[in-house]
């Protein structure tokens, strides 16, 4: 169901969004060679609890952690475990928090120490595509306008645009209608309205767009083993345009 929100609801989502931004900042600062994914997840758990929020991800359809930590060829939904970060890894940190019943959800990808030029370019282009999508998320825009703006950034580089996982509406639930694909045709699809909130989350791969789920039933990896990057913000649609709710204070 789509929740149409007023200023109070957006303010609560913004409170949750600041907590998500703090998780990104603190985990990024801590993510060094030798640190385990579980160490990072425990930091996120503390940040959420200290802020008086509840986690969006823990126990979501049985998900066992506070964050999704997706390394290298893992696109999304990586489960934090004992694996230890290494120089040159590309890590996506996806986190969610709930404040007074209202959700925020966002992801960043960054390198551990020095990363390859091709990894850096993939990551920069994926972030730019997210921002292109955010700029297109204005009242009256259609879903296809947003998807087209996102995928246009991938094409010059030949990146695979993941199609099986998408952005989504967000509010009282982490995942609400509509699905927000990272591809599309302009002037097609549902019209955006003020009061809606959506998560835009491009996932680009250096290789093809095909995905596969590992035997843990969560981790989504590129079928060809190529590197993947993932960026996400929660965006409020206001009469004046998009407002990002998951940036730092
Ligand atoms: Mg999301």
């Amino acid at each position: 169901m789509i929740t149409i929100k007023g200023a109070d609801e957006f303010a609560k989502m913004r409170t949750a969004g600041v907590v998500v931004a703090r998780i990104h900042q603190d985990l990024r600062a801590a993510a060094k060679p030798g640190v385990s994914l579980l160490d990072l997840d425990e930091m996120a758990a503390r940040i959420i609890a200290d802020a008086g929020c509840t986690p969006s991800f823990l126990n979501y359809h049985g998900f066992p952690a506070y964050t999704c930590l997706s390394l290298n060829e893992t696109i999304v939904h990586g489960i934090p475990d004992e694996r230890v970060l290494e120089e040159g890894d590309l890590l996506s940190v996806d986190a969610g928090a709930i404040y007074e019943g209202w959700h925020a959800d966002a992801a960043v990808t960054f390198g551990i120490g020095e990363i390859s030029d091709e990894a850096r370019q993939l990551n920069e282009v994926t972030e730019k595509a997210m921002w292109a999508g955010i700029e297109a998320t204005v009242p009256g825009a259609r879903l296809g306008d947003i998807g087209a703006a996102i995928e246009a950034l991938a094409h010059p580089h030949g990146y695979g645009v993941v199609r099986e996982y998408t952005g989504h509406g967000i509010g009282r639930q982490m995942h609400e209608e509509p699905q927000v694909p990272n591809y599309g045709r302009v002037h097609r699809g549902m019209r955006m309205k003020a009061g809606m909130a959506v998560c835009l989350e491009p996932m680009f791969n250096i290789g093809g767009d095909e995905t596969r789920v590992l035997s843990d039933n969560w981790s989504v990896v590129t079928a060809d083993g190529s590197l993947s990057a993932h960026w996400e913000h929660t965006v409020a649609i206001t009469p004046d345009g998009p407002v990002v709710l998951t940036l730092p204070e």
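The chain has four helices and 15 strands. The helical segments are 7-30, 37-50, 117-135, 143-154.
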